[in-house]
Specification:
Number of strands: 8
Radius of gyration: 17 Å
CATH architecture: Alpha-Beta Barrel
Strand order of the largest sheet: 1-2-3-4-5-6-7-8
Number of domains: 1
Low-confidence stretches: none
Strand content: 15-25%
CATH class: Alpha Beta
Mean pLDDT: 97
Shape: globular
Distance between the termini: 20 Å
CATH topology: TIM Barrel
Structural class: alpha/beta
Length: 257
């Protein structure tokens, strides 16, 4: 059995201080691979270095929608960085109206630039969305994001949003949040998303799943997310593991190269 953590930040403290231990714990829990996601261009070299050093770590390039310090990338800059063979995706990108306030035209413009870079590279997008469901879908549609495709990571919306994303050929990734008792809306959606469009992730070091809620998250805990989804959907762990692993390599084609 093999699992893939489709979204983590293992360069962040405290995870970055013990990569060999982190990888060993992941392997002990059948997590064979992981996608380390960049959130700034300043930290991107750390992410890329991990992917270059470790065969089973993959990288992305992008700037998180809430980041206001550091380099705000052009399409050309994203394309130049995203050409690296170890970069399998563009992002994370998207919209976050929860943490950012005021006129957010700059955030929307950044989102559009990431989509254009993904289209040029034909590498999938990693989408972050919070309190911005309608605008997220509108921009994805308007910028033809279905061409490179991608994933709605750390899904926290409802089934109606999931259906719109699925109609754009996007995948839906569930994190430890789906295991929380308060996550009924997310659990309802998780029952309905087609098995061939589901991914699992940790978003570590954040959002540790039950039974580790409140602790530092890590890729090894991908197994708990997969176990919960299996029980929720009335199937077995092996089925969820096989499907989500196949889905990961289908979406992030360069990771399988």
């Amino acid at each position: 059995m093999k699992l893939v953590d489709s979204h983590c930040h293992i360069n962040f403290d405290p995870l970055g201080g013990d990569i060999p231990g982190l990888l060993a714990r992941a392997r002990a829990n059948d997590v064979e691979s992981m996608l380390c996601v960049a959130v700034t261009l300043e930290e991107y070299p750390e992410v890329l270095a991990l992917a270059r050093e470790h065969e089973h770590i993959h990288a992305s390039v992008g700037v998180h929608p809430n980041v206001t310090d550091g380099e705000d990338p052009t399409v050309e800059r994203l394309v130049a960085l995203g050409c690296d063979e170890h970069v399998v995706a563009i992002g994370e990108t998207g919209l976050d109206y929860f943490r950012s306030e005021g006129d957010l035209a700059w955030q929307q413009a950044r989102f559009r630039r990431h989509i254009e870079a993904a289209r040029q590279l034909q590498k999938p997008l990693i989408i972050h969305t919070r309190d911005a469901a309608n605008d997220t879908i509108d921009i994805l549609r308007g910028e033809h994001a279905e061409e490179p495709g991608g994933v709605i990571h750390c899904f926290t919306e409802d089934w109606a949003f999931a259906k719109k994303a699925l109609d754009l050929d996007f995948y839906i990734s569930f994190s430890g949040i789906v295991t929380f008792k308060s996550a009924q809306q997310i659990q309802d959606a998780a029952k309905k998303v087609p098995l061939e469009r589901i991914l699992v992730e940790t978003d570590s070091p954040y959002l540790a799943p039950v039974p580790h809620r409140g602790k530092t998250n890590q890729p090894a805990y991908t197994r708990h997310v997969a176990e919960f989804l299996a029980e929720l959907r009335g199937t077995d762990l092996e089925t969820i593991a096989a499907a989500t692993t196949e889905n990961f390599y289908r979406l992030f084609r360069q990771a399988a190269a």
